[in-house]
Amino acid sequence: MARFLPSVMVSSVLNKLELSYPSIEKDLPKYINSGLMVLYKRQHDDNGWGWYENDETTPYMTAYILYGLIEADRILPETNINIKVDKGVIRRGTDSLISQLPEIEKDSEKVYALYVLSHTDKLKLEWLDEMFKKRDKLTAISKAMLLLAYEKMEVEDKAKTLYDMLMAEKIEENGYVHWGYAGEDFYWWQWEADELETTAYVLRVMAHRDLNNPLISKAIRWLIINRTGNYWRSTKASGKIIYAFSDYLSRTDEMNPNYLFTLKLNGKELKKLKVTKKNLLEGFSVITIKDEDIKSGINTIEIKKDGPGTLYYSATFTYFSDRGDISPEDSGFKVERRYYLLKKQVEDNKLIYVKSPLTGPVKSGDEILVELEVSGDKKYNYFLLEDYFPSGCEPIKDDKHYHIQGDDFYSGHYRYWYAGREFRDEMVGISLRNFRKEQYTFKYLLRAQIPGIFEVMPAKAYLMYYPALSGRTGNRELVINEAQ
């Protein structure tokens, strides 16, 4: 999912806007094909999906993945990517989602499921009408999804009612406009209350229904200034927003600019570019201001546009400080990391390990138990813990048969209770579908290999789709000596 849905969205956007971006397009077939194989493999026996292969099926994840497959099936035949989506997987996934509808308790999840089903021929109008009766209690994002589903079913009167409600719920401040949720049913980090995704869906609605709405430019500007660098918080949020932009741009003439763009800093020209459709994507990469061009005190940036077309821009200030000790941080999660040295021992003709706190150097070949303790005070979904390996160590990926004395996890039989654990080149990522207001302890093994003095980066816990809710350990040092 990490690359499949963004790749499909990129294909859709480039196709919809009749653009070419060779440096990106060359890798799309690889990402789409590998993503499809993963999704096929992770389809459960009940034909639905969960967050990972071995966790429970959920309506939201079933709908989320099904939408991606449906979009890929619709888009790929219109491109030069020679990949076909297995329609049997889509058919079975659709039937699974329909079978889950009666069990969905949250109105927002049911509306999302119906929105996805509106892209099939299986949606029934009475299902939409059931949610329409609850429209006063729906969040703005659910109203937008329900509206788009009604448009698919060509039911204009109820779509207009929802549109009028959305326009009345706008949040307008300082020349910008966005949509969100201020009730008590959802926390800010849940998608039902997310201002970025909600504004993206309402932008799509306005693009479909009212291209001359003056709120459109205000919403686009709000989305642009709320980026995190050159993306929006996560691939999920970024994808929704880019989709909304493409819906709007495909219905306007903004993709055919013909203007001269000039950027000056303190009177010095840094960039001058004739912007046309031909260079619209390649021409606007990040413009980095050099240190020597910045002066102490007030600096003046001048942006000038001559000619027809719309110019969108944003600015980001990035700085680095000299490294010192990194302190632990709790912005929703408290994270503690402990290292234990493992010593081999034979008991009753069986090899076991005895652990002791690691307080000094280790030797090449030594094995280390890493223990990560995470606690939080609320219930969360889609939790991710990342821990960087010391550069002189390698993870022990096959640790199923390790028996560590007095350790519940490594007790002679493997306890794989979290959603997933992935070893990457530089770190381990451990995920949990549901984090339930308690303390969790995650463990894995390392083997010291290369002698040296190594800096160990902090371990970080965060919500995958809302990384601002996070926590980390401090840094530490690990010394590895030559084996005697």
Question: Layout of helices and strands, plus pairs?
Answer:
Blueprint: H1 4-16, H2 22-25, H3 28-41, H4 59-75, H5 87-100, H6 107-117, H7 125-132, H8 140-152, H9 156-168, E1 171-173, E2 176-178, H10 195-209, H11 215-225, H12 235-249, E3 258-265, E4 268-276, H13 280-283, E5 301-306, E6 329-331, E7 333-347, E8 350-357, E9 362-363, E10 367-376, E11 379-388, E12 393-395, E13 420-423, E14 427-436, E15 439-448, E16 452-456, E17 460-463, E18 466-472, E19 476-481
Parallel strand pairs: 9-19
Antiparallel strand pairs: 1-2, 3-4, 3-5, 6-18, 7-8, 7-10, 10-15, 11-14, 11-17, 12-15, 13-14, 16-19, 17-18
Describe this structure in words.
Helix 1 packs parallel to helix 12 (235-249). The longest helix is centred in the N-terminal third of the chain and has 17 residues, at 59-75. The protein folds into three domains: 4-249, Glycosyltransferase (Alpha/alpha barrel), CATH 1.50.10.20; 258-306; 330-481, Alpha-macroglobulin, receptor-binding domain (Immunoglobulin-like). The relative contact order is 0.09. The chain has 484 residues and is of the alpha+beta class. It has helices at residues 4-16, 22-25, 28-41, 59-75, 87-100, 107-117, 125-132, 140-152, 156-168, 195-209, 215-225, 235-249, 280-283; strands at 171-173, 176-178, 258-265, 268-276, 301-306, 329-331, 333-347, 350-357, 362-363, 367-376, 379-388, 393-395, 420-423, 427-436, 439-448, 452-456, 460-463, 466-472, 476-481. It is built from 13 helices and 19 strands.
Mean pLDDT, to the nearest integer, reads 89
Strand content is: 25-35%
What is the distance, rounded to the nearest whole angstrom, between the alpha carbons of the first and last residues?
A: 47 Å
Strand order of the largest sheet: 6-18-17-11-14-13
- Largest sheet: number of strands, sense, barrel closure: 6 strands, antiparallel
Please name the CATH architecture of the largest domain: Alpha/alpha barrel
CATH class of the largest domain: Mainly Alpha
Uncertain spans = none
- From the helix content, strand content and strand pairing, which structural class follows? alpha+beta
Radius of gyration: 26 Å
Q: How many individual β-strands?
A: 19
Q: How would you describe the shape?
A: globular
Number of helices: 13
Give the CATH topology of the largest domain.
Glycosyltransferase
Provide the number of structural domains.
Answer: 3
Helical content class: 25-40%
